[in-house]
Amino acid sequence: MTIGQRIREARLGRQMTQQELVGDYITRNMLSKIENDAATPSVRTLEYLAGAMGLPPGVFLSDTPADPPLAGRIETLRQMLENADPQFEACLQEAKREWSETGLRLLELEAKYFQQKGLQSG
Known about the structure:
Elements: H1 3-13, H2 18-22, H3 28-35, H4 43-52, H5 70-82, H6 88-121
Helix pairs in contact: 5-6
């Protein structure tokens, strides 16, 4: 996955528009070029974009998932709340939706496990 694709995926996951993400730092048009791999962002721009989405610096440079682990994500949300971040509510709702989906997938796997275990022992 390219840097631009990682940025777009993280932005859309937070339900942010390009304009909301860039603020006054760069133009929306420049972000569009970055997301479409028509321009290469500076390290400073990558750090700004990561920070604006509550992600650790350098996240777009690695192959690891853009979202921090659960504890890190909760801490980010706590800081957003303390700082009266206008994106807090949208980020909270997105996190709750993702965690609900993850919880349901875990329950499905658990049910399959117990079903297999029951079939094997019976």
